[in-house]
Amino acid sequence: MDYIQVDIIGLSTSPSSGGAYALVLGEIGGNRRLPIIIGAFEAQAIALELEKIQPPRPMTHDLLRSLFETLGADVTDVVIDDLREGTFFAKIRYVYDGEEATLDARPSDAVALAVRTDADLFVASGVLDEAGIPADDEGEPVESDAEAEPFEAAASSAMSRLDRMESQLEKAIAEEDYEAAARLRDEIARMREGN
Questions:
Q1: d(Cα 27, Cα 133) in Å, to the nearest integer?
Q2: 39, exposed or middle or buried, with CB in 10 Å at 0-12, 13-18, 19+?
Q3: What angle do CA 138, 141, 147 make, to 5 degrees?
Q4: For the chain, how far is it from start to end, CA to CA, in angstroms?
Q5: In the structure, what pLDDT confidence band is assigned to residue 4 with cuts at 50, 70 and 90?
Q6: Which residues, listed in sequence order, are joined to residue 47 by a DSSP beta bridge?
Q7: Closest listed residue to residue 184, CA positions, set 148, 19, 167
Q8: Could you report the per-residue pLDDT of 96-153, keeping only the tens digit for each?
Q9: Per the confidence metrics, is the pTM higher than 0.90?
Q10: Burial class for 89, CB neighbours closer than 10 Å (0-12, 13-18, 19+)
């Protein structure tokens, strides 16, 4: 399986998010962004480490890092390797006693551990192809061939709804509302599969 290295672009939220945040990963050497909706606790854990703020007591991800260190295991990288029904799946890859191994994890937990262990972040190319949002260097959306493809046998009302949703997606990306962009991206994908 091919993997593409990514980096953390940022965390964002909106007042209507209900406590959810969007973790935005950016393709290194490319222009795609991958927003992943995560919980407030995981967003806080990632943000604290990125800002190098030491909480008074260790957080869960600090405990996990300490466990790896105590056992002499090295976290090599984190991969977001699957997307099923709008849910991302990740693996923590590590070396213990000379053997490579993996742990299944939620992407938010895996990323929170990765920032604590300086592990690289990767996304499966198929996941980035499916869920990535193209953007230019300024974060503005760019035209994509996929958006211009005709949808055969689609009713005109469905097409106009799809066009409106694509326009809303572009606006959400431009306004850096990645939570809304992720929802719209998933709904557009469902509509395209149905046509």
A1: 10
A2: middle
A3: 160
A4: 29
A5: very high
A6: none
A7: 167
A8: 999 999 999 999 999 999 999 999 999 999 999 999 998 865 554 444 333 322 222 2
A9: no
A10: middle
